[in-house]
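quick q for whoever's on today - can somebody do inverse folding on this one?? i tried earlier but teh output was garbage lol. tokens:
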């Protein structure tokens, strides 16, 4: 995958999360800081069920749209923090308290943000 393709995939994932009312969606270009992936997509769900729904929707729609399935998925049982690892893009879907505790945006503050605009007007 090229960096451009990774950014496109990340924006597609953000769009999928947005359609299921994922909150505070952020795309971080961590490729120059972290050698194992190019992009983090971070989103918040409002409950265990919402987090699980967001992760399931990304899994299903990305497979349908671009024939991509994650190499690994973690955290679905608890659904406090679900991680979907696509290799070049890693998706983190948190509940609010868990996202605040781990604060990946602060941890990776040196990573440039990837531009993306939500389609929903209330986002």
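ok took a stab at it. sequence:
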């Amino acid at each position: 995958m090229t960096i451009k393709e990774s950014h496109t995939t990340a924006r597609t994932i953000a769009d999928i999360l947005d359609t299921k009312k994922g909150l505070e969606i952020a795309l971080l270009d961590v490729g120059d800081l972290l050698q194992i992936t190019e992009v983090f997509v971070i989103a918040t769900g409002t409950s265990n069920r919402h987090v699980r729904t967001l992760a399931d929707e990304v899994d299903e729609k990305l497979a349908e749209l671009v024939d991509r399935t994650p190499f690994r998925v973690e955290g679905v049982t608890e659904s406090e923090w679900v991680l979907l690892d696509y290799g070049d893009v890693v998706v983190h879907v948190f509940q609010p308290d868990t996202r605040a505790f781990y604060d990946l945006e602060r941890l990776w503050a040196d990573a440039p943000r990837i531009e993306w605009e939500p389609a929903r007007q209330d986002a």
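fwiw The chain has four helices and five strands. also Strands lie at 23-29, 39-44, 72-74, 81-85, 89-94. so keep that in mind when u check it
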